[in-house]
Amino acid sequence: MEKFILAIDQGTTSTRALLVNKDGVVVNMTQEEVICNFPHSGWVETDALNIWVSVISVVNALLVKQNITFDSIDSIGISNQRETAVVWDKKTGMPICPAIVWQSRQSASICDEYEDKKEYIHKKTGLLINPYFSATKIKFILDNVEGARERAEKGELLFGTIDSWIVFRMTRGKVHATDVSNASRTMLMNLETLKWDEDLCKLFNIPMKMLPKILPSSYDYGEATFFARNLHIHGVAGDQQAALFGQACFDVGESKNTYGTGCFMLMNIGNKITYSESGLLTTVAWKIGDKVTYALEGSVFIGGAVVQWLRDKMKMIVHSADSETLAKDCSDTHGVYIVPAFVGLGTPYWDDDARGAVFGLTRNSDNRHFVRAALESVAYQCKDVFEVMKKESNLELSTLRVDGGATANDFLMQFQADILNTKIDLPECLQTTALGAAFLAGLSSKYYKNLDHIKSIHHCQKLYEPKMDEKDREERYKGWKKAVEVTRLFK
To answer: FRET partner for 84 with CA separation of 20 to 30 A, picked from 107, 159, 177, 246?
Structure first.
């Protein structure tokens, strides 16, 4: 009987369950929407119980769809939206309040209180003080939910990112754990010791007894008795780190960029920590056995979301695919630049106050130039990240592996190769986050032999090679940098 890895990919807006075979092929998949709530401006919350119910739903639907039972599952791998904070009652397993989603800005004022500690926090965690990360979300909950702090200090409450929440539920409360990649996104884990940092916990006034045990990414997390006896969780990783692993970026310098709502670029930097001075984050990519691998990460806040904006708000296109057609219908933007700083600018600027702007409009500008400029803005933002990575890693990045929904846009991928002057490798399977979770689980359960085995089943479906003249590339990017500079002055 053929066995599969069950990969659960729990994202911000949906939960997916996938079956992955020994050839690294996704043989079936189910998906269910997850609802986020926006109770106040800048706040983003979700119901952790609904997330758990969605996991149950997609797993059961997948088994029915494939016409198999849990006997056909070798092991489970979990990838998850990172930084989202859940606090629940240790005894009942019930959340004490809505989960605060990674996108939420509701702890921004708490971050302001620690502005003078930013260098201290960066040195310990590799992160920037920002409401993006979990620590200030936990503090917000403890400070604002009635009785929460007292209960937490008594050991009655548990904290977890979404991976911990799912593991706790799957094991019927027997395992309270997280993997090292997720722990590195909380702003509470020491990047060098890979343990919860007592000084940071004191700084944010978070009882350490709330925190889950930190485990390797490829490891036996325990029996998923909610589903079946003798079925174990063998792999856990944050979504972007899982995608890096799913892209088989196992060697130093290998990089991937995920084009989703935003864009997340990660580069494998090996077992030595590199602290960025230009707005990159240093994070744990994964830990297998005793070997830890670190990564540099850059974030673009508005990637594929710019196409949604063109479609839903500007009404310039009816379908997302129309953006490619219009962009290809003109030779260039006629000098139009769009800086889509709708929610600020990410790496390397980290400017929360910047807002979107358009430059270079003339009477000759039309919707084609506008749409093309919007797509080019995604590639330019990724180049900003790419250039900082090259500088700080002292590595020449000859190939960038890509994934995510926006990779379906042929124009964007070719322009990205051109503006980076780098080959763009589009993999055969675009479900790289789920693949990473499956590969990590399969390594631990011995379903996959080793990293070389995984490399051998990772295939490229298309390679984009740069074609743009060097002078043209430099002039276009110079125009982009000028547009960003002016955007940041206008506040």
So the answer is: 246
